Amino acid sequence: MIKYLLGAFLVFTFGFSAFAQHQHDEHCATSRKMAEQLEADPNLVTTRQQIEEFTARWIENNQDAERAVIIIPVVVHVVYKTSIQNISDAQIQSQIDILNQDYRGTNSDIGGVPTIWTNRVADCEIQFQLATCNPDGYATNGITRTETDVANWFGSDDVKVTSLGGHDPWPSSDYLNIWVCNIGSGLLGYAYQPGINPLLDGVVIGYAYFGFDSSSPSYDMGRTATHEIGHYLNLDHLWGPVADNSNCNADDAVADTPKQMEPNYGCDATYPHPSCGNGSNSDMFNNYMDYGNDVCLFFFTNGQKDRMRAALNGPRASLQNSNALNQCPVGVEEHILEASLNVYPNPASDVINIQSDQKDGLLTDARIFDLSGKMVLSESNIRLGFAAVQLDVSELKTGSYVLELRSENEVVTRRINIVK
Ligand SMILES: [Zn+2]
Question: Does 305 map to a domain?
Answer without folding.
Answer: yes
